[in-house]
Amino acid sequence: MGITQKEIAKNLGISYMTVNRALNSNGYVSDTLKQRILDYAKEMGYEPHRASQVLVRNKKRTIALFSSTLPRYFWDEINKGVQVAAQQLKAFDYEVHYHRVPELDTQAYLTLLEQEIEHGVDAVALVNQRMYDIATILDRIEQAGLPYVTFNIDAPQSKRHTYIGSDYAAGGRLAADFIARTLLLSEKKEVLVLQCNEDNLSQAKGPNINNMRLEGFMNLMKQSFPHIIVHIEYFDTKLQAQETDTQIFNLVQQYQGKVQAMYLIPAFNTNFLHALEIVGMQNTITVLHDLDSTATLHLKTRLLSAVIDQSPTLQGYYTVLALEKILESKRKVELPTLQIDHNLVLTENRSLIHGLAAARLMS
């Protein structure tokens, strides 16, 4: 059990009321003495009593998160973690709002943000996505004096307090390692990598996570498995507009029988797996990123060999808790980044991965 306020007062030879005022910022204490109390409390691992904290501030706190809408299955998983954390914080008078903003609509984003600011939002989390004018959005958050964190995609040069998410290059390296080791006994060793071309995103200035994955994949292949031949084919992003499109199907069909593995980098799981079903690729190693219902199904049928999963549920959960920690701190805090490792999900461990994530949420 951690040290109490009464113990801090006794150890420092000062009154309990002075310690209480310093730790809760609810009365006058000289700057020098307050700093001495705060430093000692931190050194001794003091943890404030949550219920008493709520009574002291006597104010509901609001947290707002922002992301895009696509792919829906991914942000649905983020939302699961957000809602678990929101439920846990409800007893401490916190309200959590999660906004999914239409793609390429910076004005809609700013409108939602402005509404949150007008209603007194206390802290914000956002994804550094290329499809919005994030610089303008960050400027507005900073003008409002709001603490903020990034999740899923980082903005390390901003004034964010921390980042909660994955290393995308590491995800690419994990895919490369799995494919290369699975091909060890194969006579031929050729891989098709499917990547999307985002040149049509005219306002895109932020990180390109798909390029990070590709870079990680290619670096490991060149360094550790140079004998494996890699073919990289690009398709454009109009698939995201839910149009009927045959680009992925045509590429899968073109390389049928020519490669022993296929790796899909961007989030077009349904299109890719549908193409595999039609063309018939049962003897080909197939890998993609992030679990959705179709991917989970085809891990079971073994049409899909592996999924590189970045635990979106945990990202949503820890993002909310990071904002709460920042707001409950009596001093400005810069939290260490929380890097969530990728999971290699196979047919054999697909149920275990979900069970472990659920256990971590409830721990």
Automatic annotation (TrEMBL):
Pfam families referenced in this protein's UniProt entry, alphabetically: LacI, Peripla_BP_4
Species: Sphaerochaeta globosa (strain ATCC BAA-1886 / DSM 22777 / Buddy) (Spirochaeta sp. (strain Buddy))
PROSITE patterns: HTH_LACI_2
Record flagged with keyword Hydrolase: no
Keywords assigned: DNA-binding, Transcription, Transcription regulation
Superkingdom assignment: Bacteria
GO molecular function annotations of the record: DNA-binding transcription factor activity; transcription cis-regulatory region binding
SUPFAM superfamilies, sorted: lambda repressor-like DNA-binding domains, Periplasmic binding protein-like I
PANTHER family with a match to the protein in the record: HTH-TYPE TRANSCRIPTIONAL REGULATOR GALS, LACI-RELATED TRANSCRIPTIONAL REPRESSOR
Family matches, as InterPro entries: HTH_LacI (IPR000843), Lambda_DNA-bd_dom_sf (IPR010982), Peripla_BP_I (IPR028082), SBP_2_dom (IPR025997)
SMART domains: HTH_LACI
Full protein name: Transcriptional regulator, LacI family
Domain HTH lacI-type: 3-57
